[in-house]
Amino acid sequence: MTRRKKIYEGKAKILYEGPEPGTLIQYFKDDATAFNAQKKAVLEGKGVINNRISEFVMTRLNSIGVQNHFIRRLSLREQLIKEVEIIPLEVICRNIAAGSLSTRLGLPEGQPLPRSIIEFCYKDDKLGDPLVTEEHITAFNWASTQEIDDILAMTLRINDFLTGMFGAVGITLVDFKIEYGRIYDGEFSRVILADEISPDSCRLWDTVTNEKLDKDRFRRDLGNVIESYTEVARRLGIMKEMPRVIDGGVA
What we know:
By secondary structure, the protein is of the alpha+beta class. It folds into 2 domains: 6-84 and 224-250, Phosphorylase Kinase, domain 1; 86-206, ATP-grasp fold, B domain (D-amino Acid Aminotransferase, Chain A, domain 1, 2-Layer Sandwich). It is 27% helix and 34% strand. It is built from 6 helices and 16 strands. The strands form 4 sheets. Strands 8, 9, 10, 11, 12, 13 and 14 form a 7-stranded antiparallel sheet that branches. It has a 5-stranded antiparallel sheet with strand order 1-2-3-7-6. The chain has a two-stranded antiparallel sheet with strand order 4-5. A hairpin with a 2-residue loop joins β15 and β16. The two termini are 20 Å apart.
């Protein structure tokens, strides 16, 4: 394999220089982390499944006019994506009380929220990705007022689409985390969806049993993480069975 220039390595993905200007190659790792990387493991096959699920979701979002960085899948673990200037915010959309929201506000896990709630966190692992307000975002120039408006509108549209998509296969979308980036055309820039959408970044519960089918299985030592991710892919019609990974490929 040709040696490629590594641009960035995060907890779950690596970005390499792309084959053309304005492109990157996004590689999905098997590494799993939780609690700001205090808990770590390697889950064989996770990167393959997340690559396929994120491809599936991003392609469908593109088809309804939600612009994102996805161009095409290159291999079992790699995607060709547009290079963007990442906005240093994690955008969380919540439909049902769970995780840190339950802890902060004393809400029982599983309680439906009065309406979907969007939260912003400053993207900084050393600080623990603290919760921030729109005032912080504009004061520190992380994003403009117009960009915030665009992010809010896109996030609600993504939430509506994902809620319907997962609901159709018996999965409840509890919440999800996404990121956005700027793409430039001369001096003009626009905000598009970036990163990934997968069971790593969404809370997904079985609609009938409330069984967790997401990263909480790793966070809470519930086991069967890969089996649950594979079940999400199976219901979406992406994969029929759990992949058997050999040397970075699949048998």
